[in-house]
């Protein structure tokens, strides 16, 4: 079928149904393993192309064949330099360039541009080959997102590296040469040096291109401390663009809007002005443009309750549209907009956002699996908070597991929604889902589930289902299912025992009472009262006496009262007295 099957797992996992992930932890492990295996296979194929010379695919599928990674041209020539550049061999390309200079052979300006672009892109280091060993001299960024290892690497611009050396050796330098170095310096954190390079370019009476201005605007907040100074620098760069007759593009305005997020209160007025300027020039904003603008008005944890007018206008403008990714930050739009909906408790606006996600192939702009989890987690939390339980369960079945693996907080939100609409009879079903989703080892979630089941007395049928569920929870605490056992708490023991008592499972409840002593826990007075009432209803004086003895062993303050009540309610023998 064309529609999404909500009971099916993601397409990427359907090659091996047995190993299809059923929990968020398995999803992460499976995805990492799949990506690691793919990268390792690609690395092996590219490193040993001689073993993969036959092409069985019809028609030919280039991505399944070995990439050209080995050098074929060994002579000192510009063609050999071009080959090294195309294969992203940074060190080899620099060595070949130096050999050409030593031999007195000139290198064309076009090839020099490509060489500078390569060196500056990787900050004069070899790129991390997919599936291959990682290079040293890098700063590792923290994060758990499911991405390639190279996505977590951040390099630093080194002083007097090969890019600067080659640049200084050039007899003639044009805008592209300056552009390569400036963009490389901004990319790798040398912001002040980039602005110095731009000043040097102006002193040589050269004009910048749009990529230089985009990079400098994005780096402006890094070279000024005060908000007004940052905006003044951005405005000055925009004026220089106008003077040099450089036409701005979408990334120019997105760089301005992103920089404005670090300009304090100035951001609100200038962001709207920037959007208006974009439209006046006929440049359609991307999702990142709106995301940066909304960020100026809706700060996380800021007092903007109920103020969603701007977002309403944005959603009206975007309604029914289909988007393609034009800016790397486009993928942050939906998760950030859903945060605003959640902060303002605006469920109708959240539905409009979800409708936009479902339009065309906009779902592709939800970002990686981490961003998707954030988006759907916020949407589901808002549903649990604002909607009737029937609507919540409809979305619950639609999203899980095909699109979303709820975390512990998501399941707690669902439990609260069930409690709000008095549908606690569904708790045993939710407990099964908790187990399938891998959250049965989360003690705080189990405690909340047990507390909701034990809080009130229900019909015999519901109490029986609660008792079965309680015994299942008990097996999890004891580690009977091959998993690590959980530490028994007093509240968990009390709740399970109480649930068994209410379902008339007296023997199993009595066994639970013995666990208190084994686990060094003290039962509550309310639980002892429930036991005494059950003994009276069953006409079991022996159990009542044993209960009083057990209470005395626990040194409960209620022991005298329990003894007195037992003497009053039961006809005891002299020995029992």
TrEMBL record:
UniProt repeat feature PPR, residue ranges: 174-208, 249-285
Subcellular location: Mitochondrion
GO MF term (any one): rRNA binding
Domain of life: Eukaryota
Keywords assigned: Mitochondrion, Repeat, Ribonucleoprotein, Ribosomal protein, RNA-binding, rRNA-binding, Transit peptide, Translation regulation
Protein name (database record): Small ribosomal subunit protein mS39
GO BP annotations listed: mitochondrial translation; regulation of translation
Pfam families tied to this protein: PPR_3, Rib_mS39_PPR
Entries under InterPro entries matching the protein: PPR_rpt (IPR002885), PTCD3 (IPR037387), Rib_mS39_PPR (IPR055063), TPR-like_helical_dom_sf (IPR011990)
Family note: Belongs to the mitochondrion-specific ribosomal protein mS39 family.
Keyword Ribonucleoprotein: yes
Main localisation: mitochondrion
GO cellular component entries: mitochondrion; ribonucleoprotein complex; ribosome
């Amino acid at each position: 079928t064309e529609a999404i099957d909500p009971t099916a797992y993601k397409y990427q996992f359907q090659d091996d149904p047995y190993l299809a992930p059923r929990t968020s932890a398995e999803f992460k492990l499976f995805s990492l393993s799949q990506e690691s295996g793919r990268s390792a296979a690609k690395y092996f194929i590219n490193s040993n192309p001689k073993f993969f010379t036959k092409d069985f695919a019809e028609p030919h599928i280039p991505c399944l064949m070995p990439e050209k990674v080995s050098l074929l041209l060994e002579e000192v020539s510009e063609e050999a330099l071009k080959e090294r550049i195309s294969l992203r061999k940074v060190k080899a390309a620099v060595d070949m360039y130096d050999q050409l200079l030593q031999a007195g052979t000139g290198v064309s300006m076009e090839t020099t541009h490509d060489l500078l672009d390569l060196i500056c892109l990787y900050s004069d280091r070899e790129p991390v080959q997919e599936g291959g060993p990682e290079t040293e001299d890098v700063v590792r960024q923290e994060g758990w997102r499911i991405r390639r290892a190279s996505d977590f690497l951040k390099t630093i611009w080194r002083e007097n590296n090969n890019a600067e050396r080659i640049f200084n050796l050039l007899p003639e330098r044009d805008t592209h040469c300056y552009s390569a170095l400036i963009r490389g310096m901004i990319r790798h954190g040398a912001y002040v040096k980039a602005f110095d390079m731009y000043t040097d370019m102006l002193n040589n009476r050269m004009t910048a291109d749009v990529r230089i201005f985009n990079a400098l605007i994005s780096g402006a907040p890094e070279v000024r401390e005060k908000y007004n100074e940052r905006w003044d620098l951005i405005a000055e760069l925009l004026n220089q663009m106008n003077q040099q007759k450089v036409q701005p593009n979408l990334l120019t305005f997105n760089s301005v809007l992103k920089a404005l997020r670090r300009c304090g209160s100035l951001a609100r007025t200038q962001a709207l002005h920037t959007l208006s300027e974009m439209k006046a020039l006929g440049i359609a904003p991307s999702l990142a443009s709106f995301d940066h603008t909304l960020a100026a008005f809706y700060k996380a944890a800021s007092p903007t309750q109920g103020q969603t007018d701007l977002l309403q206008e944005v959603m009206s403008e975007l309604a029914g549209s289909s988007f393609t990714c034009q800016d790397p930050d486009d993928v942050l739009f939906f998760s950030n907009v859903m945060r605003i909906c959640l902060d303002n408790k605006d469920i109708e606006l959240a539905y409009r956002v979800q409708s936009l996600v479902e339009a065309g192939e906009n779902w592709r702009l939800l970002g990686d699996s981490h961003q998707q989890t954030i988006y759907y987690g916020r949407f589901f939390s808002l549903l649990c908070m604002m909607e009737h339980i029937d609507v919540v369960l409809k979305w619950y079945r639609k999203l899980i597991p095909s699109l979303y693996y709820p975390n512990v907080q998501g399941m707690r939100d669902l439990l609260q929604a069930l409690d709000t609409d008095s549908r606690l009879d569904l708790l045993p079903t939710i407990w099964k889902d908790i187990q399938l989703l891998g959250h049965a080892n989360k003690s705080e979630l189990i405690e909340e589930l047990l507390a909701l089941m034990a809080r009130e007395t229900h019909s015999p049928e519901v109490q029986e289902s609660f008792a079965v569920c309680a015994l299942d929870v008990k097996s999890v605490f004891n580690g009977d299912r091959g998993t690590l056992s959980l530490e028994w708490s007093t509240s968990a023991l009390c709740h399970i025992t109480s649930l068994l008592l209410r379902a008339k499972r007296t023997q199993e409840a009595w066994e639970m009472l013995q666990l208190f002593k084994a686990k060094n826990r003290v039962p509550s007075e309310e639980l002892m009262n429930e036991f005494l009432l059950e003994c009276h209803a069953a006409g079991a004086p022996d159990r009542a006496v044993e209960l009083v003895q057990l209470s005395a062993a626990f040194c409960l303050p209620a022991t005298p009262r329990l003894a007195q009540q037992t003497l009053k309610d039961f006809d005891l023998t002299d020995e029992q007295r």
